Amino acid sequence: MNIQQLEYIIAVDEHKHFARAAESCHVTQPTLSMMIQKLEDELEIKIFDRSKKPVVTTPPGELVIAQANKIIVEVQRTKDILRQFKSTLTGELRVGIIPTLAPYIVHRFINEFLEKYPGVRLKIREHVTSSIIKRLRKNQLDVGILVSPINDPAIREIPLFYEPLMVYSSHSFDKQYLLPEDLDPEELLLLEEGHCLRSQIMNLCELQRKADTRLNYQSGSLETLMRLVNTGQGVTIIPALAVEALTEKQKKRVFPFKAPAPVREVSMAMHRNFLKADLINAFKEELLKGIPDEFKNGVGVKRVPIDNMAF
């Protein structure tokens, strides 16, 4: 039994597919399968039921993988301890970012981070909040960038900034600053279930459920909703950082809310027993450099809550 074999079985358990697990481990599928087979022979058990599609972890396999996760965590902790004796940061940082944030913040820090820390391998994936929380618990991510609070006892949250929410509309209003009640629920275009921004919009507009309309369109992409608005269909609510990429014509469709402006609290989330503190702190520092200073003060703003049921 070796660390590599443990990493392989953890990958298969995560992906439920040998080929995808091999790809994530940067090895060929025959190599991964052979190493797992050797481990199964050594332990005299079957870790996976290969006859099922997707692959199913057997009951004894679940026990092995639970122990494997503990071993990998301790190996990472040892590397974490030893990293303080090195003059430069090295290692891998696995980051999950929610889809309504990633398109608007990654470009703000990625080049600077990679140039400043050439010894760090940065692995960034987009996941909805529930997936980030799940992966943090299972040590499949080191840090998540998401909207808080999530109120999970296993997760530590560190607020980073407070991003205003704004109206993106296919038509104009007769006032400069809007209130939530100025929006017609029948016109509102929402993200699909599972996105925390949907939950926040429902809370902001005090909607119990989405009204039935002639166009009942739900999307996993904020960009899709904005394109619908551009064609003259309804209104949606967007985060302020999304405005930067709009054309001057599109910016005329953006309307701010009346103060105190509703905001979403963006936080960094880690497992309570998180590792790689030096890498995470470096990542946090570079990320915040790309965020407008006016978003970093949470005083006098209206934090829009998220329903825990959203994730």
Note down, in words, how this protein is organized.
Helix content is 39%, strand content 20%. With 311 residues, it is α/β, with parallel strands linked by helices. It folds into three domains: 81 residues, Winged helix-like DNA-binding domain superfamily/Winged helix DNA-binding domain (Arc Repressor Mutant, subunit A, Orthogonal Bundle), CATH 1.10.10.10; 119 residues, D-Maltodextrin-Binding Protein, domain 2 (3-Layer(aba) Sandwich); 99 residues, D-Maltodextrin-Binding Protein, domain 2 (3-Layer(aba) Sandwich), CATH 3.40.190. Strands 3, 4, 5, 6, 9, 10, 11 and 12 form an eight-stranded mixed sheet that branches. It is elongated. It starts with a helix and ends in an 8-residue tail after the last strand.
Distance between the termini: 37 Å
Shape designation: elongated
Structural class: alpha/beta
Mean pLDDT: 89
How many E-type strands?
12
The main β sheet shows up as: 8 strands, mixed
**Count of structural domains:** 3
Q: Beta-strand percentage?
A: 15-25%
Q: Outline the low-pLDDT stretches.
A: none
CATH evolutionary superfamily of the largest domain: Periplasmic binding protein-like II
Give Rg in angstroms: 22 Å
